[in-house]
Amino acid sequence: MSDHLKTILEVRTRHPHAIAEAAAARRRRESLLGDDGKLFIIAADHPARGALRAGDQPMALADRVRLLERLSHALSRPGVDGVLGTADVIEDLLLLGALDGKVVVGSMNRGGLAGTVFEMDDRFTGYSAAAIAQMGFDAGKMLFRIDPGDPFTAATMESCARAVSELAAHGLMAIVEPFISHRVDGRVRNDLSPEAVTRSITVASGLGTTSAYTWLKVPVVADMERVLASSTLPALLLGGEVSADQDAVFAQWHKALQIPSIRGLVVGRALLFPPDDDVAGAVDAAVALLRG
Question: Which pTM value belongs to this model?
Answer without folding.
Answer: 0.96
